[in-house]
Design goal:
Structural class: alpha/beta
Distance between the termini: 19 Å
CATH class of the largest domain: Alpha Beta
Strand content: 5-15%
CATH topology of the largest domain: Alkaline Phosphatase, subunit A
Largest sheet: 9 strands, mixed
Number of strands: 11
Helix content: 25-40%
Number of helices: 13
Number of domains: 2
CATH architecture of the largest domain: 3-Layer(aba) Sandwich
Radius of gyration: 23 Å
Shape: globular
């Protein structure tokens, strides 16, 4: 993918007022090679409903603290219980990275429904980022999701998505860098500069003109729309020019994207069948993404199928009741099994699709909040901080960030019984702000020199710095070379 002047300035930290770069500099082959790492892919996978993080990555023992004791006090066994016993947890095997809480040294384990992700962890391909949250947490599904999608929990920006701001800085209106496997544009990609597709299946993606007409009439409709787009793209009115350039490219995509179906199925029949055999929504969504990546990686439709950013979701994680524990064919376990099997298959598909392709794809798994520490009758209410997963061939596997403090002692949890966000450097349970993860992805995966331009820090009142995000860490070692 060619690098624009704007991309060059941003990636090299030269995007400052008055900076001038001679055109001949871009023709330097050594410089072009040094800055050519722009062909990575990012898949954002949303666990919709508020996934229970405490039963996702669970203390196996106490280590040097009391995490396991506190967990057992909060979660009951027996009928209606959701406690995971230590012998039910999936603990990584050698030579996997150690799965220890950095703060207490406690051994951690995966929920038994996450066998597929645990398998990838054993290969060193999964980073578990604990205690992810933000200041002033919100327990509303919609509002919490918006905070995660925008990367702007205090609402100081313009409502664009954290990846949308990246797309707007890196791409233009005649490009389609992102695809959502859903019927609307995901909040992560919200912006008004580039094209973003929302589709359920590539084979059904079509332009709404000429339905019911003969082919000749439909062709005339298509030509008329194309002419209108071309004319609008030249308009001095920015909104009209955006509509023209983006609309024209999307119209071309309605021709190319349906072709990806047969191109993928013909080239990859065994993997196509493997997704079918899983028979789950995550498998169907990730197969659609695989079809687009297959088209992009092989340049099957130059200039049209070029997407490298994707979003998919799996619902059902609002587990107020019937959450259950280790049983994988019910509740949270069944949801986990569907997600983990689909991601493991998707990773294998990429590795087989093209040599080294799995090293160019990262999958970020998030949920709008975790769940309450103490269970209710048979489930969990809305909570705050939880784990985020990052999966890929060049991901540095292991555990990052501290497990939240789940001590039931008075004053440790908040008034709702949820863990507290804190940036206190003297606190062993210091939280991982989601923006540190986003910024590390931007800097070390997408090549942005200064993610702080897209993720501004909080400005708390004096004395409240520990309650807010004021010291970014965009160098979380989540990726290898």
């Amino acid at each position: 993918m060619p690098m624009t002047r704007r991309q060059f300035l941003k990636r090299t930290g030269l995007a400052t007022a008055g900076t001038v770069v001679a055109p001949s500099l871009f023709r330097n082959p050594l410089l072009q090679q040094a800055l050519a790492a722009t062909d990575n892919y990012l898949v954002v996978f949303y666990l919709d409903g508020g996934n229970d993080g405490l039963n996702t990555i669970t203390p196996y023992d106490n280590g040097g603290g009391f995490l396991r004791d506190h967990y057992m006090a909060a979660r009951s066994a027996g009928v209606g219980g959701i406690r995971l016993e230590s012998n039910q947890l999936l603990v990584p095997e050698n030579p996997a990275p150690p799965m220890l809480d950095p703060n207490t040294g406690a051994q951690l384990g995966f929920h038994p429904g996450l066998q597929g992700i645990k398998n990838l962890y054993d290969l060193g391909k999964v980073a578990v980022v604990q205690g992810c949250g933000y200041p002033e947490p919100n327990l509303s599904h919609d509002q919490a999701a918006t905070k995660w999608e925008t990367g702007d929990p205090l609402g100081v920006l313009d409502g664009t998505g954290w990846l949308g701001r990246f797309l707007a800085n890196d791409y233009s209106g005649d490009q389609i860098p992102a695809v959502n496997i859903r019927n609307n544009v995901a909040g992560e990609f919200a912006q008004s500069t580039t094209g973003v597709l929302a589709l359920s299946r590539v084979t059904d993606f079509s332009f709404p003109h000429g339905f019911g007409l003969a082919q000749g009439e439909r062709d005339r409709f298509a030509a008329a729309f194309a002419a209108l787009h071309d004319e609008a793209a030249l308009s001095p009115v920015l909104a009209r020019a955006y509509t023209g350039s983006t609309g024209g490219r999307i119209q071309q995509a309605t021709v190319a994207y349906p072709l990806l179906q047969n191109e993928y199925v013909s080239a990859r029949p065994a993997f196509n069948q493997a997704y079918t055999d899983l028979n789950s929504n995550p498998a169907r969504s990730l197969r659609e993404i695989a079809k687009v990546i297959h088209g992009t990686a092989n340049d099957l439709h130059p200039g049209v199928v070029t997407a490298r950013f994707f979003q998919a979701r799996h619902g059902g994680f609002d587990t107020h009741s019937s959450q259950l524990g280790a049983v994988v064919n019910n509740g949270q376990g069944a949801l986990f099994q569907e997600v983990a099997e689909a991601i493991e298959l998707f990773y294998a598909d990429l590795a087989d699709m093209q040599a080294g392709l799995e090293n160019k794809v990262a999958i970020l798994v998030w949920s709008e909040f975790s769940r309450r520490i103490r269970q209710n009758d048979s489930g969990t209410d809305h909570g705050t901080q939880g784990p985020l997963l990052l999966i890929g061939g060049r991901v540095n596997g292991g555990v990052y960030g501290n497990h939240p403090d789940i001590d039931p002692a008075p004053g440790v949890l908040d008034d709702d019984g949820n863990t507290r966000y804190s940036q206190d450097p003297g606190n062993g349970f210091r939280s991982t702000d989601m923006r540190d993860v986003y910024g590390s992805v931007m800097k070390h995966w997408l090549g942005i020199a200064d993610p702080g331009l897209l993720l501004p820090v909080d400005t708390p009142a004096p004395g409240e710095e520990s309650l807010y995000w004021t010291q970014p860490d965009f160098d979380l070692p989540l990726f290898g070379p």
